[in-house]
Amino acid sequence: MFTFSIPGVRRVIERGVADATAHGGFRVPYEGISSPDQARAGLWLVDDEGVYLCSNGKLAANEKPFVFYSEQCHPKGDFDWWDYKRRHFGADDGVEFIEAERLLPLFNRNMRATHLNLALTETEITISLFTR
Predict the structure, then answer these.
(1) Domain of residue 81, CATH code
(2) What domain range is 126 assigned to?
(3) Which residues lie below 8 Å from residue 24, measured CB to CB, with a gap of 6+?
(4) Each residue's pLDDT tens digit, 37-64
């Protein structure tokens, strides 16, 4: 399970929208697999050096996307991030796309919630909210 503050998740989505507006749209969820008509607002859950959310708007040359690390897997602060990542996401690098239209209505209906939990299995991502 990976935990993110809801304001942080909103910032990732907002940055993706701003980048898309400035640079001609959204990047497709899975390069080489997704068709261009699948490019839409959302974010990537990335398993790499830590686990983080990544904005998906198109970028200017040499610009980097906005990333927001999970509470459990920030490589500059969580000494056991790699073991946690391996147990809950897998040992290999990975990426999963989550549509903004799946998250934002959930956040807007649950205004008291402060955090998002993402739990992964081999076939699905379970989304839950909680208040801290």
Answers:
(1) 3.10.150
(2) 2-130
(3) 58
(4) 778 999 999 988 889 999 999 999 999 9
